[in-house]
Amino acid sequence: MKFVAFERAKQGTGASRRLRISGRTPGIVYGGTGEPSLIELDHNALWHALKKEVFHSTVLDMEMDGKEHKVLLRDVQMHPFKQLILHIDFQRVDANTKLHMKVPLHYSGDENSPAVKTEGCIANHVVTEIEVLCLPSDLPEFIAVDLSGLKKGASLHLADIALPKGVTAVTHGKNNPVLVSVVVIAAAEAPAAEAGAAAAAPGAAAAAGKAAAGKAAAAAKKK
């Protein structure tokens, strides 16, 4: 994804406030071999860009002074209650250096799985993104996960999904975290319990009838 930035000459609280009043957002680009660069961006264009998932999870093309720079979004500071971006940080990308990045998981197919379709369960998405380590050229926009094979009583773990070539998951000590858990719907369990009770009722009634008949026969003999 491509966006346009401009060099920012002035810094400081007052300068940043005047910049925001004029419809611009102050920012910084750091990392790599160069010195940090102060930048400014059009606020409205940036606001709409931040609504797109790709702006958060891929290597971006930043155009500044007629040149393109590969960067990653690293931090966004928002106003506590206004729809206002206060500051934004980007990191330069080196094509030969591996980077850590959070990548969203796109789940699909759970409505067609045995767990959801016939076994009265729901698929609970425990994790919606994972951290990965890879070269910038291997960074995926998202990772697709097919849930059509989910079954009752089973969960989907990280080891169960195929990661793109060149991509390694970073788990921070968690060996094989759960991504999706299968949860039985309480409403689905109730009819099953009621059906079991109904099936047992005729047998119980028959046993009670036999007991009553036995007592009647015993009373007749005594007379």
What do these coordinates show?
With 223 residues, the protein is of the alpha+beta class. Helix content is 28%, strand content 36%. It has 5 helices and 14 strands. The protein has helices at residues 13-21, 43-50, 53-57, 114-117, 186-222, and strands at 2-4, 6-7, 24-30, 37-42, 60-64, 67-78, 85-92, 99-108, 121-125, 129-134, 143-146, 155-157, 168-170, 178-184. Strands 1-5-6-7-3-4-2 form a 7-stranded mixed β-sheet. A hairpin with a 6-residue loop joins β6 and β7 (85-92). The longest helix is centred in the C-terminal third of the chain and has 37 residues, at 186-222. It is elongated, with a radius of gyration of 31 Å. The mean pLDDT is 86.
Coarse shape: elongated
Fraction of helical residues: 25-40%
Structural class: alpha+beta
Spatial sequence of strands, sheet with the most strands: 1-5-6-7-3-4-2
Q: What is the beta-strand fraction? A: 35-45%
- Mean pLDDT, all residues: 86
Annotate the secondary structure layout.
Elements: E1 2-4, E2 6-7, H1 13-21, E3 24-30, E4 37-42, H2 43-50, H3 53-57, E5 60-64, E6 67-78, E7 85-92, E8 99-108, H4 114-117, E9 121-125, E10 129-134, E11 143-146, E12 155-157, E13 168-170, E14 178-184, H5 186-222
Parallel strand pairs: 1-5, 3-7, 8-11
Antiparallel strand pairs: 2-4, 3-4, 5-6, 6-7, 8-10, 9-14, 10-13, 12-14
